[in-house]
Structures are given as C-alpha cells and as structure tokens.
C-alpha cells in the first residue's frame, strides 16, 4: 500500500502553534488505524526514509519537524479501556488533553494533575515531558503505566514494567524517536474539585514564601511580569467532588479571560514590540488589570487557562533548592534588558513537580522548580533566552523537550543518568534512525 492510500496530503510548509518553527514534509499521512500506520512506517524504513509523528504541533522546539513523512494521529483518539480497581485507563495517543478531562469525568475519573495548557495530544505531552504543578505529583510521563508503541520494524509492542521494561522506561519520554506511541495506559484517580485562589502580592513576598507554599499547598504557581514588583499567585486546593461548585460566572469569564487577559493583552504586546520603551508601563497595567478571584470547579476546568496570545517559550527544570538563586539571576537579566531598552513584555511562570524515575524526564531523581520565560511571537527571543539558558544550565537545569533550547548530546550525557541506557534502546529498536530528525540527533547523536 502506498502512502497516498493512507489519507495523504501534501503541503509546502508546516508550522508549529507559535510559528517559531517551520519545515517542509514530503507528505502528511493521517492513517485510519494501526495497520495503515504500520504499512507507512515499513515502507519508509524499506527505502531508508524518515517518519516523524506530530501531536497538536504545540511544541516550541523542532521536535516534530521533518522533511520526509509527517504522521498525524488525529484519528487515533478516545478511551479504549477502564480498570477501576487498578485505577488505570487506556487512551489512544492522538487524544487531546482538552478532550481527556471530560472523557474521564464522564466515568467519575480524573488525571491527578494537568498543565495549564491542554491543546496537546496525550502522545505529544508524554513524549516531551510536559507537566503541571504540585510537589505531590509528577508530570504526565510519571503517570504512564503502560504503552503501545509501533517500532521501525512495523511491530506493535505492548510494553510496561514487566514486559520489555527497558523499552517502556525509554518510551515514557522519547521525543518520538523510538517509534510511534499509539496508546497509553495511565494511572488515574477519582474525580475531584479544585478551589482556586488567585491573588496579587509583592514579588519579594511571593519569592520568600514560594518553597513553603509549594510544600503545603496541593498546587501552587506564580507569574511575574518582568520589571514589576508584583507576583500573581495561584493556589489550588483539592476538594471532594461533592463539596459544591462555585465556578466563575460565564459572563465574567468571557470578559476577563477573553477580552482583558487575551484580546487587550494582544494589543499591549503589539505596542510593546513596536515601542519597547513602553513595556514597563504596559507590564504595570497588566498586573493591575488581572482579576483577583476565588472559585471552585471540576479539576480540569481549573488546571487549564486560555492562552490565545501567541508567544515563544523556553522552560528549564532545576533542583528545587536552587529556586531563589535562579529567580534572582533572572531578575538581574531582565533588569539589564530593560536598561538596554529591550524590555520583556510576557510574564515568567514558576511551577514545581515531584521527582520521578522516568529516564528522560526533566524531574528525574529530584523535586524540581520549573521557570518558564516567554516572548511575544513578534519579538526575537534569542538574546533573552540565551542569557537565561546559561544561568539555568549553571544551576543544573534541564529543558522541557518541547520548548526552545540549545542543548547537545555531550551536555545530555552528563545531565541524565540514564542517557546511555536510552541511547542503547534507540540503537536496538531503530538502528536505521527511521524516527529521527535534526533536533533528536543534536541531543542524542546520529
């Protein structure tokens, strides 16, 4: 069967969500099922070609870029199994996180934690070490208890801690370089509510209390607009499902999130990009304009926030004990940029995650603080990101694989205790490098 018989289209250029990356696939294939998927992979392997799966295209890094066959798993969606006794579900890898919350909720189940963006597919989220916030919880890959993965030989392998354990460990975060993840088994919990408390306070107080709050709160994060003296904190407290809903009124949500937090902010970012000297004033306005609110809703409605203003992002995970040093250094970098007339309009986001044992997870072996820096998509992030990356790497930082970074294989070999183990699994299941691209080769060698 040719690639064209599996729902192939051609297009001149592909882009990620923020348009920071572009590439030209030879074909985009949307297989109707696993059999067609296996055929496409086998054909590519036979001719010495390359295949790269893509999720939602939300990664800021070129993790999904290819000049050969791009795989779109948009047909592989939905729940395929529920084991209530074990607290596990099976989900097809092309399922969007935005759909997964309601799907689980219909069965009285939930993910224990979620990130603040849910545009990604499940397969893409676990492959890039995506995460939420809370020291009692890991990222998505730490919730994975089993996988189905189609390898370069066309075999569909069902792996877990007892069956092909090395492939399982390597595939929980794989950057799409070991094969095509088609289905994921996840640990889940009973549905629950979250009470969210969003407040503004002096940034020095936010920093001083960050580690204490992170250890005592179920989920804690904060935002800081560079150049401002304000920390915008969010504390989420887990409540039983029967505790009672107190959601945000729909009209208030539409006005605050749709118009002020996104529509008006887009205009402010455009002005800041065109006239950089206005950024300090605009950041101050942004801090004052955000709502102070407390509300209670089902977990997936509270974890996730609307992010319609496009931006580029770099995020590093560091040992939690380095938080204060990392944030102080970041403030110095931002202050220097403001002095040079290069003000940063987009906020910094700070979160945490529990240590896990996933080989290429950003939180492998250590409780971690995540600091994410952003620039409006019309601005060049190069200088800002380079300075911040140098600082974070010096403090033991590891990059989110789906976000911008300049790391290489020599660095990765030192930063990840199981780097060599992961590379050995890659050599075993994909010796021809059917699933590679330039980004993967930079990080793990060709």
TrEMBL record:
Keyword Oxidoreductase applies: yes
Domain FAD-binding PCMH-type: 21-191
UniProt keyword terms in alphabetical order: Oxidoreductase
Matching InterPro entries: ALO_C, FAD-bd_PCMH, FAD-bd_PCMH-like_sf, FAD-bd_PCMH_sub1, FAD-bd_PCMH_sub2, FAD_lactone_oxidase-like, Oxid_FAD_bind_N, Vanillyl_alc_oxidase_C-sub2
UniProt keyword annotation of Ribosomal protein present: no
NCBIfam families: bact_FAD_ox
Record-given protein name: FAD-binding protein
Annotated source species: Micrococcus lylae
